[in-house]
Structure formats: C-alpha cells, structure tokens
Amino acid sequence: MSSSHLANAILDTGTSVLAGPSKAIAAIAERAGAVPILGTGEYMIDCERVPKLPNLQLTLSGATFTLSGHEYVVKTSAFGQEACLFGFLGIDVPPPRGPLWILGDVFLRKYFTVFDVEKNRMGFALAA
C-alpha cells in the first residue's frame, strides 16, 4: 500500500492498533477492502483476504519498518465466529500536536522498542 503522509508519531502500548488521520486511514482501508464499523473509526476485513493483503511500510526518521497483513490484522472471535479487525483506527488530532500517528500494539508486537530517555532517542529491533 502506498500512502505518503508526513506527520508526528508516538508509540503507545495502551493502543491496540495503528491510529492516524481519518482520511489517510480511510484511504488505506479502502485499498485493502476493509469495511468501516459505523461511528467507531475502526474497520473489519474478511479474514479470507488477510493472506492477500499487501505489506505496509512505515518510515520513521529514515528507517523503514514493514508489517504484513497477518501482522496488522487482529483476529478475534465474536459469538463463536472468527472475525478480523483491520488494525487501523481513524483519529484526528488537531494542530499543534497533530496530525498524529499512534503506533500501538500492531507495531510493537513486531518491533522491540528501547526508550533512551537520557539521550532522547529510541531504538528498534525485530522482536524475537
């Protein structure tokens, strides 16, 4: 999927998905064939589509991080049926803090993150 949106990003262990500007998320969801859950900013996707979903590439400070469809779709069950939550949420954070992307558990499950507060930096590695 290709969508270029320059914005601030934060990492948040309290957010399950990747959250970002509603218009950008809607465009990504539409390309993937995800269907909006009315009034929530969330999307569902047919579980059979997951193996065919394209990789998503995020670029942070010049480093590229890749997530596969299996990594950005959250499988769950509802009423005994398997369901697939498209791991993106539309949120609109106004300036001066926004537009803003929140990299939640969908990202953090794959990339181990080290916060170096002393030197005001972060490091990433593939999680084992």
Automatic annotation (TrEMBL):
Pfam families: Asp. Residues 1-125 form the Peptidase A1 domain. One of its GO terms (molecular function) is aspartic-type endopeptidase activity. GO terms for biological process: proteolysis. Disulfide bonds join C47-C84. InterPro entries: Aspartic_peptidase_A1 (IPR001461), Aspartic_peptidase_AS (IPR001969), PEPTIDASE_A1 (IPR033121), Peptidase_aspartic_dom_sf (IPR021109). Keywords: Aspartyl protease, Disulfide bond, Hydrolase, Protease. Belongs to the peptidase A1 family. This is Peptidase A1 domain-containing protein. The lineage of its organism: Eukaryota, Haptista, Haptophyta, Pavlovophyceae, Pavlovales.
